[in-house]
Specification:
By secondary structure, this protein is of the alpha+beta class. The chain is 54% helix and 15% strand.
Length: 307
């Protein structure tokens, strides 16, 4: 009984296949020719056609003259022309009352994929120029639009954070900085921006954890560390501020501001007035003569002499 059932099933499958073939093939002769962009025949193009709502795919290849042919039944068909090194072409056509129009196609090499780098760089530069003009919201919109089209442009999160910060919206700036770190956890610049904005919104403890974990040899901009030291100085935590700035000077020995703020930090540390005087004098020689900080350093030095 099992063998008989198997036979019946196989027979049914074969009948279905024969039926499908009969439904796709017919008396209408579809002919056509494939040429290249110079009008020369293209041989060995694989041509496949399939009738709508049918599973069977009929296939052939073009001959030396670039010609092909199918015998088809009435109905709607889709057809595909494919050859390595040429752009694949797809068409649809209909067969009615045993008649069908010839189908000639021209195949060309595939179009080179457009490199978006030039367009992206142009838009990023436009965002920078717009920001430099003080149009922070417009600059941010440029990067927001780029992110919609190119989500991999994670640097836009950092840029948008800076735009929000410039608009005095620190929480929104921090949200963008958090996204920047989330997308690129190893990016030191993003971490520094995140720490700086955490300071701005009052979360000093979390900001200092981030700063403490950063390798100073990877830092290009020391100002988040300097800003933290300034906060410590304002809190009259001179020893902590001086220690942090001393560590920073190892990596940035020519950063004049570090000497200025370490000198101010030493003022709050017992027996460190000579060090404060030395740092402030060094800053005066290194800093811009007309800067507010140099004027302030000179004023502090005059007071230290009186002591």
């Amino acid at each position: 009984m099992k063998s008989f059932r198997t036979y019946i099933l196989l027979a049914a499958v074969l009948l279905m296949a024969a039926s499908a073939s009969a439904q796709s093939k017919g008396k209408a002769r579809l002919t056509g020719k494939v040429v290249d962009v110079q009008g020369q025949p293209v041989a060995d193009v694989t041509v496949r056609t399939q009738k709508a709502n049918e599973t069977e795919v009929l296939a052939t290849k073009t001959d030396k003259k670039g010609e092909f042919k199918f015998n088809l039944a009435d109905g709607e068909f889709k057809i595909e022309f494919a050859k390595e090194g040429l752009e694949t072409i797809q068409h649809t056509f209909g067969v009615k009352d045993g008649a069908v129009e010839p189908l000639n196609v021209t195949m060309a090499p595939p179009k080179p994929k457009e490199d978006p780098s030039a367009a992206i760089n142009a838009e990023l530069q436009r965002a920078v120029t717009t920001a430099q003009a003080g149009k922070f919201a417009e600059a941010r919109k440029i990067c927001e639009d780029l992110l919609v089209k190119y989500p991999v442009l994670t640097q836009c999160y950092g840029f948008n954070a800076r735009m929000y910060a410039a608009e005095n919206q620190p929480q929104k700036a921090l949200d963008q900085a958090n996204l920047a770190v989330e997308k690129e956890p190893a990016n030191v610049d993003s971490k520094l921006l995140q720490a700086d904005l955490l300071m701005e919104v009052g979360n000093k403890e979390e900001a200092r954890k981030i700063l403490a974990a950063i390798d100073l040899t990877q830092v290009k901009d020391p100002f988040p560390f300097i800003n933290d030291a300034i906060i410590l100085i304002n809190e009259k935590k001179g020893a902590e501020a001086a220690a942090a700035l001393t560590k920073l000077l190892v990596q940035f020995p020519n950063q004049a501001e570090i000497y200025y703020y370490r000198g101010r930090a030493y003022i709050f540390v017992a027996d460190k007035l000579p060090e404060a005087k030395s740092d402030l004098e060094k800053f005066v020689t290194m800093g811009k003569p007309d800067s507010k900080e140099v004027a302030e350093a000179k004023k502090i030095l005059e007071q230290l002499v009186k002591k």
